[in-house]
Amino acid sequence: MNDLIIRYASGMRTMTATEASRRFSDLLDAIERGESVTVTRGNRPIAEIRPAHRRTGKDLREALAETTPPDERFETDIAEATALLTSDRTDPWAAA
Fold it and tell me: pTM for the whole thing?
């Protein structure tokens, strides 16, 4: 992996914040390959960087299926707020 200095500790790759800064592109390449890296500062872990979980339409459908639908008052509140935003009221600051 080029000159990227990565150490193994407890089965997880680690690197210092300085190394991460200097070799950020290499770090992102490693993450893109599916690797996870713990970034340390002063020998203390400060971040874990791992590949992002790609969300799908199925994930969205499942999340929406688990939500409680809004009650009638919510719909009324939205309609009233929309009416305020789209009303033809004059701007009190226009003449200022």
Answer: 0.50
